[in-house]
Write a structure and sequence with these properties.
The structure holds two protein chains of two kinds. Chain A is of the alpha/beta class. In chain A, 42% of the residues lie in helices and 11% in strands. Chain B contains six helices and six strands, in the order H-E-H-E-H-E-H-E-H-E-H-E. A six-stranded parallel sheet of chain B has the order 2-1-3-4-6-5, sandwiched between helices.
């Protein structure tokens, strides 16, 4: 086997979406197939570990697919590659989706952790710092953006151009622990920091009465962030949206992605009342069959 | 005392660009102003809550920096300890927090902080202690809280 070069990371080269129509459809079909497989694994890992938040995890799958298979500069052969983009999953209740994505991308397949995850012998309620491809151990809400801002600042101080992407929940956007680092990041003009916020319009398993997606976008914009909104389940649209941040300078960027709780599983979509409970074994089986 | 600590930090930071100070607007005494004037690229004002400062410090320390936090907000809320424990102590990151003690506060704070895994607690009483503390922290890894005695307002001008 030849030497693996960091740039041979399997990631499409810049402008990949500027393909001819046939190649473009092929690329999007590939991403959709990956997303479906990741959904199956998300349900399976959650079921094995008997953890809840399956609907929330499913709502993030397309975003994680777009990030890991299209946008992020990462290499599963070199998980500690110094020039890689960093990714932080702040709302670790959706860690099952991240593990499924890392497995599909090749970070975990031969790792003992993958075997433990499949048997339900490793926690999926939080991200484990020891897992290949995981940059930060997270668990409780509200920590990720501040650390991401620190990473982005450190990259600038070192004069390197890797980016830091933080995925956080819209629920975390109710907390000062998100808004304070957001304000600081804008003040420092951290343009290599990107926040991704899947917004479902729900909070704690019920409809969020306090804020709409447009209000959320205005709040980020008022702080000085570059805001892009997209359909969080349209892979072509969200990949195009992610590519926009390459051209933004002087301010951090936030992608507000409109998503659906439980996307992909009919009896979980828009699920009210199934926010944090684990699925019953029969529900897990039915969900996996539906995703086949 | 705080001035002596900042002075020692300035001496260390002038030869080590990886030493960074994070401050909030309340921690804006003459010593810090002097540091900022001398090393503006190594001092950042992160106005806002302690948890934001700690999170940013963790991010910096994850990428080869040694971070010193100066804040006026009382640090001893449970949520802040959770941040400290999970992000900084668990990963043994090189983050030092300078905590100014007031009457009767330091005992509860220091005993609680010592329960955090891997957390070192240093109590600085004079300039010699300050130099020694900075020398240790500039050459060793891991988190630390530096407890300094409270000063009268006049000492900060």
């Amino acid at each position: 086997m030849g030497t693996v070069k960091p740039e041979d990371d399997g990631r499409p080269k810049p402008g990949a979406l500027a393909l001819d129509a046939a190649d473009f459809r092929h690329r999007i079909d590939f991403l959709k197939a990956q997303a479906t497989a990741i959904r199956r694994w998300t349900v399976a890992l959650s079921g094995a570990a008997s953890v809840g938040h399956v609907g929330t995890a499913l709502s993030s799958v397309d975003l994680l697919t777009g990030l890991y298979f299209h946008e992020l500069r990462v290499n599963p052969m070199l998980p500690d590659w110094a020039e890689r983009d960093r990714f932080i999953l702040a709302h670790a209740e959706t860690a099952a989706a991240l593990y499924a994505t890392l497995g599909a991308r090749g970070f975990l397949r031969s790792d003992a952790l993958w075997s433990r995850l499949r048997r339900g012998h490793a926690p999926v309620g939080r991200t484990l710092a020891a897992a290949p491809g995981v940059d930060l151990c997270t668990g409780s809400l509200g920590y990720g953006l501040a650390v991401g801002a620190g990473l982005a600042l450190s990259a600038r101080r070192h004069g390197v151009d890797w980016r830091t992407v933080v995925m956080l929940s819209d629920e975390e956007c109710h907390s000062s622990s998100t808004w304070n680092p957001a304000r600081a990041a804008a003040h420092m003009k951290l343009d290599h920091l990107i926040a991704v916020v899947p917004t479902t319009g729900m909070r704690g398993g019920a409809t969020d009465q306090t804020r709409s997606a447009s209000t959320l976008a205005s709040e980020w914009e008022d702080l000085g962030w570059h805001v892009v909104q997209t359909d969080g389940h349209d892979l072509a649209a969200l990949c195009g949206a992610l590519e926009q941040f390459v051209h933004v300078s002087g301010k951090p960027g936030v992608l507000i992605a409109h998503t659906v709780v439980g996307k992909g599983v009919s009896f979980l979509e828009h699920g009210v009342g199934c926010h944090d409970r684990p699925l019953m074994p029969a529900e897990t089986t039915a969900a996996i069959e539906e995703l086949a | 005392m705080r001035a002596a600590l900042v002075s020692a930090l300035a001496a260390a930071a002038s030869s080590d660009p990886h030493i960074v100070l994070l401050t909030d607007s309340g921690a804006n005494d003459a010593a810090l102003k002097s540091f900022r004037a001398m090393l503006p690229e190594q001092c950042y004002d992160v106005d806002g809550s302690a948890d934001a400062m700690i999170g940013m410090a963790a991010g910096l320390a994850m990428n080869d920096h040694r971070v010193f936090i100066f804040a006026t907000e009382p640090m001893m809320t449970f949520r802040t300890c959770e941040f400290l424990r999970r992000e900084i102590c668990r990963n043994q990151l090189s983050v030092a927090i300078v905590a100014e003690s007031g009457a009767g506060e330091e005992e509860g704070r220091e005993s609680l902080l010592q329960t955090l895994p891997g957390m070192r607690v240093m109590t600085v009483q004079d300039a010699k202690d300050a130099r020694a503390a900075v020398a240790i922290l500039a050459s060793t890894d891991g988190p630390c809280v530096i407890s300094v005695p409270g000063e009268a307002v006049g000492d900060r001008r």
